[in-house]
Write a structure and sequence with these properties.
The chain is an alpha/beta fold. It is 41% helix and 16% strand. It has 10 helices and 12 strands. The strands form 3 sheets. The chain has a 6-stranded parallel sheet, sandwiched between helices. Strand 1, helix 1 and strand 2 form a beta-alpha-beta unit. Helix 2 runs parallel beside helix 4 and helix 6 packs across helix 8. The N and C termini lie far apart (41 Å).
Length: 309
């Protein structure tokens, strides 16, 4: 990418999209194209097609999606499947019709089978059953990956897919009904501290293991891959290191300054037992994550106006 290219970041108000915009601006890209949901409804096929044909961006990053944690994925199954299918299909097909040669689709590590070997290599896709609690979201994301692969094969496009691990950072969602595990723990610990409580209630057993990536690291990886003109198969983006949910809760408590004890709610689901990505493909391309977990959580906690005293 050169600094004068027009770059469309879809979903620029979300955690990933806003990190991409920050990263691009920091690197001197001046023609960043964005549209809010009110300005462009990504579920409207004709509107998306007209927008892309009119604007003709040189590059597209698809960070727009309907996202949520275990509860939201499991309860709003139809919404997650339909909306994510429509968003990605409208953007990928619209990009093709507009003559856009280079596009990046951001999927999720939930695309991989529930019980596949660890760490998870990209080749494990479609080798076993998915985790049931987020199956609709995963199926939609797999469809997006296959759309990119198919446009590349049939039309010679360079539409690449990246698989981020669990993300956190500025502009995260702290709504306890719909958030992921890390922002939920940060909010719970903060509020427990504010109320002077003695316990931090954590869903599940605390035994599942998860990997976490600071969102600004993901943005750097995405821009790096686009600049390398990478046009190979899908790429995992993570740290290659995981922790138990118990360990995660303990780190959050240190950062927030909550000195109580942890209480596990075994009536709530654990989800996938372990989900650690094999990041050897990305490292082989010359990129590795830089932000340590505790430092990243501190940055996220300090950056959120939600926790301003």
């Amino acid at each position: 990418m050169n600094k004068e290219n027009k770059i469309f970041v879809c979903g620029h108000r979300g955690m990933v999209g806003s990190a991409l915009v920050r990263c691009l601006r920091a690197q001197g890209y001046s023609k960043i194209l964005t549209r809010s949901r009110d300005e462009l409804d990504l579920l409207d096929q004709q509107a998306v097609r007209n927008f892309l044909i009119t604007e003709k961006p040189d590059y597209i990053f698809i960070a727009a999606a309907k996202v949520g944690g275990i509860h939201a994925n499991n309860v709003y199954r139809a919404d997650f499947l339909y909306q994510n299918l429509m968003i990605e299909a409208n953007l990928i097909h619209g990009a093709h019709l507009a003559g856009v040669q280079q596009l990046m689709f951001l999927a999720s590590s939930c695309i991989y089978p529930r019980d596949c070997p660890q760490p998870i290599h990209e080749d494990y896709l479609l080798t076993g059953p998915l985790e049931q609690t987020n199956e609709p979201y995963a199926i939609a994301k797999i469809a997006g990956i296959k759309l990119c692969e198919s446009y590349n094969r049939q039309y010679g496009r360079q539409y690449i897919s990246v698989m981020p691990t669990n993300l956190y950072g500025p502009n995260d969602n702290y709504d306890l009904a719909n958030s992921h595990v890390l922002p939920a723990l940060i909010r719970k610990a903060h509020e427990a501290k504010q109320r002077g409580e003695e316990e931090l209630v954590v869903w599940g057993s605390g035994k599942p293991m998860r990997e976490f990536l600071y969102v600004d690291d993901l943005a750097e990886a995405c821009v790096y891959l686009m600049n390398q003109k990478y046009d190979g198969p899908l790429v995992n983006v993570g740290t290659g290191v995981d922790v138990t949910i118990r360990e995660l809760a303990e780190i959050v408590m240190r950062v927030v300054g909550f000195a109580g004890r942890i209480k596990f709610d075994a009536s709530k689901p654990d989800g996938t037992p372990r989900k650690l990505l094999d990041v050897s493909r990305l490292k082989g391309l010359g990129w590795s994550a830089r932000t340590e977990l505790e430092e990243g959580i501190r940055l996220a906690y300090q950056a959120s106006p939600f926790f301003a005293s």
